[in-house]
Amino acid sequence: xxxxxxxxxxxxxxxGEHAVVxxxxxxxxxxxxxxxxxxxxxxxxAETGRVTIQAPDIGLSATMDQLPxxxxxxxxxxxxxxxxxxxxxxxxxxxxxxxxxFSSGMGSSAAVSVALIRAFSGFLGxxxxxELVSDLAFEVEKIQHGTPSGIDNTVITYAVPVFYQKGSQIxxxxxxxxxxxxxxxSGLTSSTAETVADVRRGWEGDAARYEELFDQIxxxxxxxxxxxxxxxxxxxxxLMNQNQTLLKKIGVSSETLDSFVETAMASGAxxxxxxxxxxxxxIIALVSEDSTTFVADALKKAGAERVFTTRILSx
Length: 315
Ligand code: PMV
What we know:
alpha+beta, Ribosomal Protein S5, domain 2, Alpha-Beta Plaits, 4-stranded antiparallel β-sheet, 40% helix, binds (3R)-3-hydroxy-3-methyl-5-(phosphonooxy)pentanoic acid
Protein backbone atom coordinates (compact mmCIF):
# COMPACT_ATOMS: atom_id res chain seq x y z
CA UNK A 1 0.00 0.00 0.00
CA UNK A 2 1.77 3.19 -1.12
CA UNK A 3 1.80 6.52 0.75
CA UNK A 4 -0.86 8.95 -0.47
CA UNK A 5 -0.64 12.75 -0.41
CA UNK A 6 -3.35 15.32 -1.12
CA UNK A 7 -3.37 19.09 -0.85
CA UNK A 8 -6.10 21.73 -0.87
CA UNK A 9 -5.90 25.50 -1.39
CA UNK A 10 -6.91 28.32 0.91
CA UNK A 11 -9.73 30.61 -0.12
CA UNK A 12 -10.98 34.11 0.21
CA UNK A 13 -14.50 35.41 -0.01
CA UNK A 14 -14.66 38.26 -2.52
CA UNK A 15 -18.25 39.23 -1.74
CA GLY A 16 -21.13 38.12 0.43
CA GLU A 17 -19.77 36.62 3.66
CA HIS A 18 -22.31 36.31 6.48
CA ALA A 19 -25.23 37.12 4.16
CA VAL A 20 -24.46 33.77 2.50
CA VAL A 21 -25.42 32.04 5.76
CA UNK A 22 -28.89 33.57 5.27
CA UNK A 23 -29.32 32.32 1.72
CA UNK A 24 -27.88 35.25 -0.21
CA UNK A 25 -25.28 34.60 -2.93
CA UNK A 26 -21.55 35.07 -2.36
CA UNK A 27 -18.40 34.82 -4.45
CA UNK A 28 -15.31 32.95 -3.29
CA UNK A 29 -12.03 32.13 -5.00
CA UNK A 30 -9.26 29.65 -4.20
CA UNK A 31 -5.87 30.98 -3.12
CA UNK A 32 -3.21 28.57 -4.29
CA UNK A 33 -0.19 30.18 -2.61
CA UNK A 34 -1.33 28.76 0.72
CA UNK A 35 -2.30 25.10 1.07
CA UNK A 36 -3.13 22.33 3.50
CA UNK A 37 -1.48 18.98 2.99
CA UNK A 38 -2.28 15.49 4.28
CA UNK A 39 0.07 12.55 3.86
CA UNK A 40 -0.97 9.02 4.80
CA UNK A 41 1.88 6.54 5.25
CA UNK A 42 1.27 2.81 5.73
CA UNK A 43 2.70 1.28 8.91
CA UNK A 44 2.90 -2.42 8.00
CA UNK A 45 4.65 -3.29 11.26
CA ALA A 46 1.88 -1.80 13.44
CA GLU A 47 -1.28 -3.64 14.45
CA THR A 48 -4.26 -3.36 12.07
CA GLY A 49 -6.46 -0.37 12.77
CA ARG A 50 -3.80 1.65 14.56
CA VAL A 51 -3.95 5.19 13.17
CA THR A 52 -1.43 7.76 14.36
CA ILE A 53 -2.11 11.43 13.77
CA GLN A 54 0.58 14.06 13.55
CA ALA A 55 -0.36 17.71 13.14
CA PRO A 56 2.79 19.59 14.16
CA ASP A 57 1.26 23.04 13.45
CA ILE A 58 -1.11 22.53 16.37
CA GLY A 59 1.27 20.40 18.46
CA LEU A 60 -0.76 17.24 18.00
CA SER A 61 0.75 13.77 18.02
CA ALA A 62 -1.60 11.01 19.15
CA THR A 63 -3.24 7.80 18.13
CA MET A 64 -6.74 8.25 16.87
CA ASP A 65 -8.42 6.59 19.86
CA GLN A 66 -6.73 9.15 22.15
CA LEU A 67 -8.63 11.95 20.43
CA PRO A 68 -12.13 12.98 21.48
CA UNK A 69 -14.86 11.47 19.29
CA UNK A 70 -15.73 14.85 17.75
CA UNK A 71 -12.15 15.89 17.03
CA UNK A 72 -12.24 17.00 13.38
CA UNK A 73 -9.41 14.71 12.28
CA UNK A 74 -10.87 11.67 14.03
CA UNK A 75 -14.31 12.54 12.69
CA UNK A 76 -12.99 12.73 9.12
CA UNK A 77 -11.12 9.43 9.35
CA UNK A 78 -14.13 7.59 10.76
CA UNK A 79 -16.55 9.13 8.27
CA UNK A 80 -14.27 8.29 5.33
CA UNK A 81 -14.06 4.68 6.51
CA UNK A 82 -17.84 4.44 6.79
CA UNK A 83 -18.67 6.31 3.54
CA UNK A 84 -16.13 4.40 1.48
CA UNK A 85 -17.38 1.08 2.84
CA UNK A 86 -13.83 -0.08 3.66
CA UNK A 87 -14.02 -3.21 5.79
CA UNK A 88 -10.45 -3.10 7.13
CA UNK A 89 -8.46 -0.16 8.40
CA UNK A 90 -4.75 -0.68 7.65
CA UNK A 91 -2.33 0.76 10.22
CA UNK A 92 -1.03 4.12 9.12
CA UNK A 93 0.33 7.51 10.14
CA UNK A 94 -1.50 10.60 8.96
CA UNK A 95 0.48 13.82 8.88
CA UNK A 96 -1.39 17.07 8.42
CA UNK A 97 0.33 20.40 7.78
CA UNK A 98 -0.90 23.73 6.50
CA UNK A 99 0.50 27.05 5.37
CA UNK A 100 -2.96 28.62 5.59
CA UNK A 101 -3.10 30.91 8.64
CA PHE A 102 -5.53 29.51 11.23
CA SER A 103 -8.76 31.30 12.16
CA SER A 104 -8.06 34.08 9.71
CA GLY A 105 -10.86 33.80 7.17
CA MET A 106 -8.84 31.80 4.65
CA GLY A 107 -10.62 28.50 5.05
CA SER A 108 -7.90 26.60 6.89
CA SER A 109 -10.32 24.18 8.56
CA ALA A 110 -12.11 23.27 5.32
CA ALA A 111 -8.79 22.92 3.48
CA VAL A 112 -7.42 20.54 6.12
CA SER A 113 -10.62 18.49 5.87
CA VAL A 114 -10.56 18.33 2.07
CA ALA A 115 -6.87 17.34 1.94
CA LEU A 116 -7.39 14.73 4.64
CA ILE A 117 -10.54 13.26 3.07
CA ARG A 118 -8.83 12.93 -0.31
CA ALA A 119 -5.59 11.50 1.06
CA PHE A 120 -7.27 9.04 3.38
CA SER A 121 -9.90 7.82 0.91
CA GLY A 122 -7.11 7.46 -1.67
CA PHE A 123 -5.06 5.47 0.86
CA LEU A 124 -8.00 3.12 1.38
CA GLY A 125 -8.11 2.65 -2.39
CA UNK A 126 -11.54 4.26 -2.56
CA UNK A 127 -11.18 7.86 -3.71
CA UNK A 128 -14.39 9.81 -3.21
CA UNK A 129 -16.19 12.01 -5.73
CA UNK A 130 -15.82 15.78 -5.40
CA GLU A 131 -19.42 15.96 -4.28
CA LEU A 132 -18.82 13.52 -1.42
CA VAL A 133 -15.56 15.23 -0.47
CA SER A 134 -17.38 18.55 -0.22
CA ASP A 135 -20.30 17.01 1.71
CA LEU A 136 -17.97 15.41 4.25
CA ALA A 137 -15.96 18.62 4.67
CA PHE A 138 -19.28 20.40 5.25
CA GLU A 139 -20.12 17.95 8.05
CA VAL A 140 -16.82 18.88 9.72
CA GLU A 141 -17.53 22.58 9.24
CA LYS A 142 -20.81 22.06 11.08
CA ILE A 143 -18.99 20.58 14.09
CA GLN A 144 -16.56 23.50 14.11
CA HIS A 145 -18.71 26.45 13.10
CA GLY A 146 -22.30 25.58 13.98
CA THR A 147 -24.20 26.95 10.99
CA PRO A 148 -21.79 27.25 8.06
CA SER A 149 -23.16 28.23 4.67
CA GLY A 150 -21.13 25.59 2.80
CA ILE A 151 -19.15 28.11 0.74
CA ASP A 152 -15.73 27.18 2.20
CA ASN A 153 -15.94 23.44 1.56
CA THR A 154 -17.34 24.11 -1.92
CA VAL A 155 -14.70 26.54 -3.20
CA ILE A 156 -11.89 24.53 -1.63
CA THR A 157 -13.07 21.15 -2.94
CA TYR A 158 -13.60 22.33 -6.52
CA ALA A 159 -10.67 24.79 -6.37
CA VAL A 160 -12.30 27.19 -8.83
CA PRO A 161 -13.96 30.60 -8.36
CA VAL A 162 -17.61 30.08 -7.42
CA PHE A 163 -20.81 32.07 -7.23
CA TYR A 164 -22.42 30.25 -4.34
CA GLN A 165 -25.92 30.30 -2.96
CA LYS A 166 -27.12 27.77 -0.39
CA GLY A 167 -29.45 25.21 -1.95
CA SER A 168 -28.62 26.19 -5.55
CA GLN A 169 -26.41 24.43 -8.01
CA ILE A 170 -22.78 25.59 -7.72
CA UNK A 171 -21.96 28.12 -10.40
CA UNK A 172 -18.32 28.11 -11.50
CA UNK A 173 -17.18 31.61 -12.41
CA UNK A 174 -14.89 31.98 -15.37
CA UNK A 175 -12.48 34.85 -14.73
CA UNK A 176 -11.12 35.92 -18.11
CA UNK A 177 -9.61 39.19 -17.03
CA UNK A 178 -7.18 38.81 -14.09
CA UNK A 179 -8.21 40.10 -10.67
CA UNK A 180 -5.19 41.09 -8.60
CA UNK A 181 -5.66 41.21 -4.86
CA UNK A 182 -3.40 42.13 -2.01
CA UNK A 183 -4.29 40.03 1.02
CA UNK A 184 -3.26 41.40 4.40
CA UNK A 185 -3.52 39.15 7.41
CA SER A 186 -3.97 41.11 10.63
CA GLY A 187 -2.51 38.20 12.60
CA LEU A 188 -5.50 38.51 14.93
CA THR A 189 -7.31 35.20 15.13
CA SER A 190 -11.05 35.25 15.30
CA SER A 191 -13.57 32.45 15.70
CA THR A 192 -15.97 32.26 12.76
CA ALA A 193 -18.40 30.38 15.01
CA GLU A 194 -18.47 33.41 17.32
CA THR A 195 -18.90 36.07 14.64
CA VAL A 196 -21.61 34.00 12.97
CA ALA A 197 -23.34 33.57 16.36
CA ASP A 198 -23.09 37.33 17.05
CA VAL A 199 -24.65 38.13 13.69
CA ARG A 200 -27.43 35.68 14.52
CA ARG A 201 -28.07 37.48 17.82
CA GLY A 202 -28.28 40.77 15.92
CA TRP A 203 -30.66 39.23 13.41
CA GLU A 204 -32.83 37.80 16.19
CA GLY A 205 -32.97 41.26 17.77
CA ASP A 206 -33.94 43.09 14.57
CA ALA A 207 -34.66 40.65 11.76
CA ALA A 208 -36.10 43.28 9.39
CA ARG A 209 -32.95 45.44 9.52
CA TYR A 210 -30.59 42.49 9.07
CA GLU A 211 -32.65 40.99 6.23
CA GLU A 212 -32.44 44.37 4.47
CA LEU A 213 -28.65 44.46 4.96
CA PHE A 214 -28.31 40.87 3.72
CA ASP A 215 -30.43 41.75 0.66
CA GLN A 216 -28.08 44.61 -0.13
CA ILE A 217 -25.06 42.34 0.22
CA UNK A 218 -26.71 39.73 -2.02
CA UNK A 219 -27.33 42.40 -4.68
CA UNK A 220 -23.65 43.35 -4.53
CA UNK A 221 -22.63 39.71 -5.13
CA UNK A 222 -24.94 39.53 -8.16
CA UNK A 223 -23.58 42.76 -9.60
CA UNK A 224 -20.03 41.54 -8.99
CA UNK A 225 -20.77 38.31 -10.85
CA UNK A 226 -21.96 40.30 -13.87
CA UNK A 227 -18.87 42.50 -13.78
CA UNK A 228 -16.56 39.48 -13.53
CA UNK A 229 -18.30 37.78 -16.45
CA UNK A 230 -18.11 40.96 -18.53
CA UNK A 231 -14.34 41.04 -17.91
CA UNK A 232 -13.90 44.48 -16.35
CA UNK A 233 -12.72 43.69 -12.82
CA UNK A 234 -11.49 47.24 -12.09
CA UNK A 235 -15.06 48.26 -11.42
CA UNK A 236 -15.36 45.67 -8.64
CA UNK A 237 -13.59 48.13 -6.34
CA UNK A 238 -16.58 50.28 -5.46
CA LEU A 239 -18.66 47.15 -4.83
CA MET A 240 -16.00 45.97 -2.37
CA ASN A 241 -16.22 49.28 -0.53
CA GLN A 242 -20.00 49.08 -0.41
CA ASN A 243 -19.78 45.51 0.88
CA GLN A 244 -17.35 46.64 3.61
CA THR A 245 -19.77 49.37 4.73
CA LEU A 246 -22.51 46.75 5.08
CA LEU A 247 -20.19 44.37 6.96
CA LYS A 248 -19.48 47.18 9.39
CA LYS A 249 -23.21 47.67 9.87
CA ILE A 250 -23.69 44.03 10.78
CA GLY A 251 -20.88 44.42 13.30
CA VAL A 252 -18.16 42.09 11.99
CA SER A 253 -15.40 44.56 11.21
CA SER A 254 -12.97 45.91 13.81
CA GLU A 255 -10.77 48.95 14.31
CA THR A 256 -7.76 47.11 12.91
CA LEU A 257 -9.59 45.85 9.83
CA ASP A 258 -11.14 49.29 9.22
CA SER A 259 -7.73 50.92 9.46
CA PHE A 260 -6.22 48.37 7.02
CA VAL A 261 -9.04 49.10 4.57
CA GLU A 262 -8.34 52.84 4.91
CA THR A 263 -4.60 52.27 4.45
CA ALA A 264 -5.21 50.20 1.31
CA MET A 265 -7.49 52.86 -0.17
CA ALA A 266 -5.13 55.71 0.73
CA SER A 267 -2.26 53.95 -1.03
CA GLY A 268 -4.08 53.39 -4.29
CA ALA A 269 -6.30 50.30 -3.98
CA UNK A 270 -9.42 50.28 -6.16
CA UNK A 271 -11.48 48.84 -3.33
CA UNK A 272 -10.98 46.95 -0.09
CA UNK A 273 -12.94 44.93 2.44
CA UNK A 274 -12.55 42.35 5.14
CA UNK A 275 -12.84 38.76 3.96
CA UNK A 276 -14.30 35.81 5.87
CA UNK A 277 -15.77 35.84 9.34
CA UNK A 278 -14.27 39.21 10.27
CA UNK A 279 -13.23 40.87 13.58
CA UNK A 280 -9.74 39.49 12.95
CA UNK A 281 -8.32 37.66 9.98
CA UNK A 282 -7.63 39.44 6.77
CA ILE A 283 -8.62 42.19 4.44
CA ILE A 284 -8.41 42.02 0.65
CA ALA A 285 -7.60 44.97 -1.56
CA LEU A 286 -8.24 45.11 -5.29
CA VAL A 287 -5.19 46.60 -7.00
CA SER A 288 -3.99 47.60 -10.43
CA GLU A 289 -0.52 46.60 -11.58
CA ASP A 290 0.79 50.09 -10.74
CA SER A 291 -0.53 50.17 -7.19
CA THR A 292 0.26 46.60 -6.07
CA THR A 293 3.60 47.34 -4.43
CA PHE A 294 2.44 50.59 -2.81
CA VAL A 295 -0.58 48.93 -1.28
CA ALA A 296 1.34 45.86 -0.10
CA ASP A 297 4.10 48.01 1.46
CA ALA A 298 1.62 50.34 3.14
CA LEU A 299 -0.24 47.40 4.69
CA LYS A 300 3.02 45.95 5.99
CA LYS A 301 3.89 49.31 7.54
CA ALA A 302 0.42 49.52 9.05
CA GLY A 303 1.19 46.33 10.98
CA ALA A 304 -0.19 43.48 8.89
CA GLU A 305 1.49 40.28 9.98
CA ARG A 306 1.58 38.82 6.51
CA VAL A 307 0.90 40.43 3.15
CA PHE A 308 0.79 38.66 -0.17
CA THR A 309 -0.51 39.24 -3.65
CA THR A 310 -2.65 36.82 -5.58
CA ARG A 311 -3.74 36.94 -9.19
CA ILE A 312 -7.03 35.26 -9.94
CA LEU A 313 -7.56 34.04 -13.47
CA SER A 314 -9.35 30.96 -14.75
CA UNK A 315 -7.21 28.50 -16.71
O1 PMV B 1 -13.90 32.90 8.31
P1 PMV B 1 -14.12 31.85 7.29
O2 PMV B 1 -13.01 31.65 6.33
O3 PMV B 1 -14.53 30.55 7.90
O4 PMV B 1 -15.36 32.36 6.39
C1 PMV B 1 -16.63 32.44 6.98
C2 PMV B 1 -17.66 32.92 6.03
C3 PMV B 1 -19.02 33.17 6.69
O5 PMV B 1 -19.90 33.63 5.67
C4 PMV B 1 -18.93 34.23 7.76
C5 PMV B 1 -19.60 31.92 7.32
C6 PMV B 1 -20.05 30.87 6.32
O6 PMV B 1 -20.21 29.73 6.74
O7 PMV B 1 -20.32 31.20 5.15
